[in-house]
């Protein structure tokens, strides 16, 4: 398999962590690309020029991190990241933290191309409020089984979202207002899959 990615994409990092947690990383060839540079190999795999993209051994190109995670999870019944006793909760947590990632990522992209004043637009303010609400909801969920149990997709997306905010939006300093979430994140960030894939 081939995984197209770069080192700063939260979506690509989710896919890579999933591969590691499923012990599939020896089977995945990492192809580092710049999605903004119209890389020919990436465009062949995904005409949308978005990462991550996983090209299967059969030559199918799967885009979108959640779909890639689902596919990787299906390759082995052991240590499922999705089909746990808390399946619905895993999906709910995944969706919540994916939304947090989307709000943070879009904030970064808009600042890059339109300047920080883009935060003051209607859509910019909507994104900031979404980040605030998402962080609070995660704080409220820290002691639930889905966040305290075995590693799952929801936990993976959550730790990536939080570390991406630290990486790209450090002024947020969310840890001060959400100490339980910060403590939870510290523990999960020490897993080999997260240290190996740290943003750079």
UniProtKB/TrEMBL annotation:
Q: What protein am I looking at?
A: GST N-terminal domain-containing protein
Q: Which SUPFAM superfamilies match?
A: GST C-terminal domain-like, Thioredoxin-like
Gene3D superfamilies associated with the record: 1.20.1050.10, Glutaredoxin (3.40.30.10)
Q: Which residues form the GST N-terminal domain?
A: 1-80
Kindly list the GO CC terms recorded for this protein: cytoplasm
- One Pfam family name is GST_N_2
Question: What InterPro entries does its record include?
Answer: Glutathione-S-Trfase_C_sf (IPR036282), Glutathione_S-Trfase_N (IPR004045), GST_Omega/HSP26 (IPR050983), Thioredoxin-like_sf (IPR036249)
